[in-house]
Specification:
The protein is an alpha+beta fold. It has 2 helices and 2 strands, in the order βαβα. Strands 1-2 form a two-stranded antiparallel ribbon.
Amino acid sequence: MKNNDISAILDARRDAITAAWVGRARVEESLAACVNVPPGLRSIHPNEMPEVVALPVADGHHPYLSWVASSTRTP
C-alpha cells in the first residue's frame, strides 16, 4: 500500500454514541485501523446525513503508515 492509498477520514455524527458505534464497526470490518471519538462530541448543526470528508495522507511516520496498511483492507 502506498501512502496515497491511506486517507484520514473526518466523520461528524450527531452524538458520541453513534460515532463510537460507527467507528467500532469500521474497525471490526478492517475499513479503519483506528477511530478517535473526542469526549463531549456533539454536532451543532442539523445533520440529516453525516459529514464525511476524506483527506489523503501525503506522508507520515513510516511505522504508523505500515501498521495502518496491515490493519485495513480495500473496501
